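We now fix the convention by which a protein and its fold are recorded. Think of the row as the fold of the chain written in a discrete alphabet. Here is one such record, which you should read through line by line.
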Amino acid sequence: MSKLPNATASIFSVMSQLANKHNAINLSQGFPNFPVDERLLQIHERLLNENIHQYTPMAGLPSLLNKIASLTNKNYQREINTDTELLITSGATQGIFTTINALVNYGDDVLILDPSYDSYEPSVLVAGGKPVRISLNDDYSPNFNRIEAAITAKTKLLIINNPHNPTGKIWNEQDFEALETILEKYENILLLSDEVYEYISFKHPHISVNTRPKLINRAIIASSFGKSLHVTGWKVGYLIAPEPLMKEIKKVHQFLVFSVNSTAQHVITKYLDIVNFDEISTMYANKRALFLEGIQSSCFKILPSEGTYFQVVNYSEISNKNDVEFAKELITKYGVAAIPISVFYKDATDKKMLRFCFAKTDETLINAVKILNNI
């Protein structure tokens, strides 16, 4: 009997394949199409002839762990123990899967806020847990009344995603205070904070769970070098968690991947000495501005994008079709690929919304804008 009887090809694969078939501009799948930093390539080339091609320690390359600890202290003023509170993972998705399968037992409830990244629910199901999907507010802020109402004696874990994929929403101080008030009442509930877009924020600064003393002793925080450094194909992420939780996570990790790509770990270690994350955020802010200014006069209604490299729009003035059908039409008829937001909901809530990825070359964005303005 299948553990994932309803699993099908992801919408990202479907839309990308359709975009390739129709030679459409692909603003659907969330990965950059521009070259990585030349300095990163130079480090990679320089290190390839060195003895870096064997297993690293299971938890990660010690020098990289130390760099992450320094980065966390610099940005969040949190000191972490590299031996007991940090783990390099094969991308954040593997880290999230490992966390859920290490900490969620059969019959446990896991609260997931919709619209949500598509890996959360399958990970819970494989662990034998029960996904409990809770809709965000219309502006995609968390609805804490709904969250608290969903808590039962079986609730083991709450998953939050900040900055938020697919909407670009960022939690504010009041959101975290409300969350802390709730969790103080339920001391056995753990928190998994997906923060893979932590270094891509615009108008409002990203608030990390790393900065919340009331939460860090029960929180697992997932980060991604793939997203932060736009090297998604390298699949290198990391988890930060208190020692008792990390001990259980490492038990699963060692039998799932054991250790992560050694070359990527060595290169990233060196690159962290020279990269400026503020410059990366500024670069994406410029791309966001280019895309938004370009479609300002279109028939698409633009929703706020506070972080990530995604932009959500409403197309209700253009078509009455459901978002999946309109997204397909956008590819086949007009030549631009996007992701329909309904696929991020358990009940396929359709609000006539699409997600565009603006982590693309300026030329790609300009060409897409020309098409979108004529729809």
